[in-house]
Design brief:
With 258 residues, the chain is α+β, with helices and mostly antiparallel strands. The chain has helices spanning 51-86, 92-124, 149-152, and strands at residues 2-18, 26-31, 38-39, 44-48, 127-129, 134-140, 146-147, 158-174, 186-190, 199-206, 216-223, 234-243. Helices cover 28% and strands 35% of the residues. It has a six-stranded antiparallel beta barrel. A four-stranded antiparallel beta sheet has the order 5-4-2-7. The two termini are 25 Å apart.
Length: 258
């Protein structure tokens, strides 16, 4: 004899992510995916306008080129003063000043090269990549619109990626069952729309708190990968809360009273 608690829940995907730019965002220049496209983690999905950032890279590279030329000239002057001083020609102060010029220009060059790397990194922030592997579920952004981390966080906007390889069912359990349901309990998950028999699983997560509004706690169970299972799909979770293996169960309609 087995007794189940029947609760309504919904299917959710552990692999669900919204695409977001790594920088401050910008105007969308190109979108390389569409709804239903399969993408891999790290794949380029969107390009933002990078004209200003590229100008910063060019300016930083030009400054670096100028400093390299000045450093080469200062190095030549220093070597000449040094050779003359070895022949007891000239003053030692000239060698010291020339060496100081070389060191100062070398420090400026290092700073300029770091600025080039920073400008290139900022320019590369115009490339927006997929954070997870999966299927593009929503594309609610168009070329010419402004895209930022703030706008990407708004529900129903931006690009959403869903990975259905790791699905789970989430349900709210009334608090009066708190002592009867625990992690590892057997469950049956029924999704009528699929037309398939129930899925067997166990409770993998039990909520650590009671919701003060609906006086319930959450329970989760993992589901197998199935193309008919979709995130936010309604499902029924039957939690086994009592089982008597030595009992004999018969349908109630065959029991007669005499």
């Amino acid at each position: 004899f087995s007794h189940f608690i029947e609760l309504q829940g919904k299917i959710d995907a552990e692999g669900l992510a919204y695409v977001a730019p790594s920088g401050q965002g910008g105007v969308v220049k190109a979108i390389y995916v569409k709804t239903g496209s399969r993408v891999g983690k790290g794949q380029l999905v969107m390009k933002l306008d990078d004209a200003v950032a590229r100008q910063g890279v060019v300016a930083a590279q030009q400054q670096t080129g100028q400093l390299k030329a000045r450093l080469a000239q200062a190095q030549t002057v220093y070597e000449r003063y040094q050779n003359l001083w070895k022949q007891n020609i000239g003053a030692e102060i000239n060698v010291i000043n020339a060496k100081a010029d070389v060191d100062a220009l070398a420090a400026q060059l290092n700073a300029a090269q770091a600025q080039v790397s920073l400008a290139q990194e900022q320019a590369n922030m115009s490339n927006v990549y997929a954070g997870i592997s999966g299927v593009i579920d929503q594309v609610n952004i168009k070329v010419g619109e402004f895209f930022s981390p703030q706008s990407a966080a708004i529900p129903g906007s931006g690009i959403r990626i869903v990975n259905n390889s790791n699905l789970k069912i989430i349900t709210n359990v009334p608090e009066n069952y708190v002592a009867r349901i625990k992690k590892g309990d057997k469950v049956e998950v029924v999704v009528p729309e699929t037309g398939k028999p129930s899925f067997q699983s166990v409770i993998s997560v039990i909520g650590a708190s009671i919701d003060p509004i609906n006086r319930s706690f959450t329970a989760e169970a993992k589901l197998p990968s199935d193309p008919l299972l979709k995130p936010n799909q309604t499902a029924t979770m039957k939690i086994l809360d009592y089982e008597a293996k030595a009992a004999i169960a018969v349908p109630v309609n065959v029991v007669q009273s005499d």
